[in-house]
Amino acid sequence: MPSIVDRPAQPYVAERATVAIEEFPRIADRLPPLIGTLAGHGIAPAGPPFFRYRVRHPGMRFTVEAGVPIEGGFDPDEPAFPGELPAGKYVLDTYVGAPDGLAAATAAVLAWGAREGVTWDRTEGPGGEEWGCRLEVLRTNPLEVPDPTRWVTDLLFRLAD
User: Fold this and answer.
1) What is the model's pLDDT at position 73?
2) What is the radius of gyration, based on Cα positions, of the chain?
3) What does the pLDDT read at residue 150?
4) How far apart are CA 71 and CA 8, in angstroms?
5) CATH superfamily of 3-158
6) Which residues 6+ apart lie within 8 Å of 120 measured at CB?
7) pLDDT digits over 99-125, tens only?
8) Which helix (H) or strand (E) holds 1?
9) Where in the chain are the domains?
10) 76 and 12 in contact (C-beta within 8 Å)?
């Protein structure tokens, strides 16, 4: 069952792409090089990597960032860029399973929010539904747990202020 949690602001480094679901590996595959770039500069991740959904476009396309939290600042070479996840109240739900179940897990959280009367940090923009902060935090390292049915992902959706 989802819960509401407070989260502090969190600096991160990311790359961004607009993809359809079937193209998602194109952005997901950017995480290992990002982590490698940080390691090459002596920077350890300050938490698990994540996907930040910025815009849900018509036709089930998404502008997504593949990000790695860091402590302090770092100015990476393009196409990577620095960012900050906003502080605030978030709905948190934890999903265990393969990535192909994440859409249903997300739909369940959104339905729960509708029943509970929560107001999400999202607006309708010219390109689609824009989210202030909507995350999939990857708590399982696939190199350590190769069975995707055992992967743990935190779904975090920021509430409107």
Assistant:
1) 86
2) 15
3) 97
4) 12
5) Regulatory factor, effector binding domain (3.20.80.10)
6) 110, 113, 131, 157, 158, 159, 160
7) 999 999 999 999 999 999 999 999 999
8) none
9) 3-158
10) no
